[in-house]
UniProtKB/TrEMBL annotation:
Gene Ontology CC: endoplasmic reticulum membrane; SNARE complex
Single GO MF annotation: SNAP receptor activity
Name recorded for this polypeptide: Sec20-domain-containing protein
Coiled coil: 49-99
Length: 249
């Protein structure tokens, strides 16, 4: 299976973190008893679902842009699990909204009965205690929401840092490949220069050998010419002089 790039892996990490965050909020939504808390949680969940839809579509588009079919199938295969979790999350959201609606209606019914005097003192005390507990839970939910927002901002900053680190790693990798290529070319040039130097040395040796052979040939040629001159001119001249001298005498 092909290895995913750091950028695509970071996108999948974002989706997984957002799905976990939404699952926590869905659990909180099941336990609310006030309309305000329900609306706030559902608004956050709806925004998170929109982010998930956008990120999933972005990864699909990235998969379609891959040059190799193997890389495309790897991305889509991993994305399939997130899509299944996304469908399960949507079903959980619908059930949580229905449960919270039933809780709100039940609490509103008890409150109406209290106003009409249909609830005895013991039930009234229990209702007040439950009301206070849920009020405390609402405060905790608001605090948890603030913490979640802070964590989301921190996650976004970390994501930006991861993307910058991934880009830097990519640049360093490309620079390393360029340096390796340059080093290989340099080694190739060194081999060519070494061979050229050896060839030039051999040519110089051959040049000196040719010069010596030419000089030797020239020397032999001069000797031959002198020998011929001696035979044809010098010896012949002395022969005529000897004959002339003998004739005069």
């Amino acid at each position: 299976m092909a290895t995913l790039s750091p950028e695509i892996l970071a996108r999948f990490e974002n989706i997984n973190r957002r799905q976990l965050d939404l699952e926590t909020k869905v659990t909180q939504l099941k336990n609310v008893i006030t309309l305000t808390a329900q609306q706030e949680l559902y608004s956050d969940i709806r925004d998170g679902v929109k982010d998930l839809e956008k990120w999933i579509e972005d990864i699909k588009q990235t998969a379609d842009e891959q040059e190799r079919e193997k890389d495309k199938q790897t991305i889509l295969h991993r994305l399939q699990r997130n899509e299944e979790q996304y469908k399960q999350l949507q079903a959980s959201i619908r059930r949580a909204v229905l449960t919270s609606k039933q809780n709100i209606e039940r609490e509103a019914k008890i409150e109406r009965e209290m106003l009409l005097g249909r609830v005895d003192g013991r039930n009234t005390f229990a209702f007040e205690m439950r009301r206070r507990n849920f009020t405390s839970e609402d405060a905790l939910l608001h605090s948890a929401s603030d913490v979640t927002d802070a964590l989301r901002r921190t996650t976004q900053l970390m994501q930006q840092e991861i993307e910058r680190s991934a880009y830097s790693a990519k640049i360093l990798d490309e620079s390393s490949r360029a340096l390796k290529s340059t080093y290989s070319e340099y080694r190739g040039f060194s081999s060519v220069l070494r061979g050229s130097k050896q060839l030039i040395t051999k040519l110089e040796q051959i040049d000196w050998t040719d010069r010596l052979l030419i000089l030797f040939g020239l020397f032999v040629f001069v000797l031959v010419v002198l020998y011929i001159l001696k035979k044809r001119v010098w010896n012949t001249g002395f022969g005529w002089m000897s004959w002339f001298a003998s004739w005069v005498i």
